[in-house]
Write a structure and sequence with these properties.
With 125 residues, the protein is mostly beta strands. It has one helix at 5-12, and strands at 19-28, 31-40, 43-45, 54-56, 59-69, 74-81, 116-123. It has one domain.
C-alpha cells in the first residue's frame, strides 16, 4: 500500500491540538533581552497496528537571548533554544533496547535532542 495508516493520519490527524506563543523583546540602552515561551499541545501518533497508537502530552519550551551592542557596528549575544532541556514524552513502542534508539517521539512539533546554547557576534558593514 502506497499510503498506509501512519502516512494517512500524518496528514489528517497527527497534528498539534493547540499552540501558544508568548514573546517579549526588551531593550534598555545597549542591552537587549529576547524571550520566547512556546506551549506545544498534545498530539497523537498512529501505527498500522491500532494497538501501537500513542498519545503525547503538551510541553512548554523556553528560548532566551541576551544581547549587548558594543558599538554601532558590533554586537554580541548569548542565548539558547529550549533552555530548560525539555524532551518529548518517552516512546515505549519505538524504543529499541538493542540499538539504544527511539527514546522519544519524532513526529512532534519540537525536536528530540533537548536544548542548545550559543554565542553570536554580529558585525554591520
Amino acid at each position: 500500500m502506497l499510503f498506509d495508516r501512519p502516512a494517512q493520519t500524518n496528514v489528517t490527524e497527527n497534528l498539534l491540538r493547540t499552540k501558544l506563543l508568548l514573546n517579549n523583546y526588551t531593550q534598555i540602552g545597549d542591552w537587549s533581552l529576547n524571550t520566547r515561551i512556546n506551549r506545544f499541545g498534545g498530539f497523537n501518533s498512529f501505527d498500522n497496528a491500532v494497538a501501537n497508537d500513542r498519545s503525547y502530552g503538551a510541553k512548554w519550551i523556553a528560548d532566551m537571548a541576551l544581547g549587548w551592542k558594543a558599538t554601532d557596528t558590533l554586537e554580541f549575544a548569548i542565548g539558547g533554544n529550549n533552555i530548560f532541556n525539555v524532551y518529548p514524552d518517552f516512546d515505549p513502542i519505538g524504543f529499541n533496547r538493542n540499538l539504544g534508539a527511539g527514546f522519544y517521539a519524532t513526529s512532534g512539533a519540537f525536536g528530540f535532542t533537548g536544548g542548545y546554547y550559543y554565542g553570536r557576534v554580529g558585525v554591520k558593514f
